[in-house]
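To: structure subgroup
Subject: Chain for Friday's discussion

All,

I'm putting the inputs and outputs inline so they're searchable in the archive.
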Amino acid sequence: MFDEKGILFVLSGPSGVGKGTVRQRLFEKETHLKYSVSATTRKKRPGETEGVDYFYKTKDAFKKMIEQDELLEYAEYVNNYYGTPKEYVEEQIEKGKDVFLEIEVQGAMQVKRNFPEGVFIFLFPPSLEELKNRIVRRGTESNDLVINRLKEAKKEIDMMSEYDYVVVNDDVDKAVEKVKAIIVSEHCKRDRIENQYKKILEDDTNVRTIN
């Protein structure tokens, strides 16, 4: 029997490129995917569930996870820590589940250092002008913050070479279809399944020998 392991897929790109929208639309179509549950030190909000929305940790417990190298990536935001537990990702992959992580570029680079066997997808804006328009349409950032985000986006786009795939998000549905194609392609890669097929052949040889 061929028990295929899952794969960690990391979707990343500049702020405002539409990572969340693409991820949500993808999950509507690909129900087998597991979204990576993060750990956080912020308090649980009404309606949230442990292990579904977040793994809720004290700051001491989170710092211990950092010290013991139990996180694929982490960051501090508004006096709270957020991070991706390595154990959760590895458990899901061993069960044959594909894990999907949507994250900013700096976090993706942390993940790549700690989990290089993951598949890294860079979501690219059609143009910087369109990226600017998307950020402005949010209506949540001042003009100075928009300018800073665009400067950061230029730096992040220069890091595109660190990724395995690039998907232009000029149309959400087309971008989702491309991500789905990447998932299928990765599961068909020879180097991912060769060793498992060899084991199947060895087991079959042993059975024939016994008979």
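Points worth raising on Friday:
DSSP finds eight helices and nine strands in the chain.
Residues 1-33+98-211 form a domain with the Rossmann fold fold (CATH 3.40.50.300).

D.
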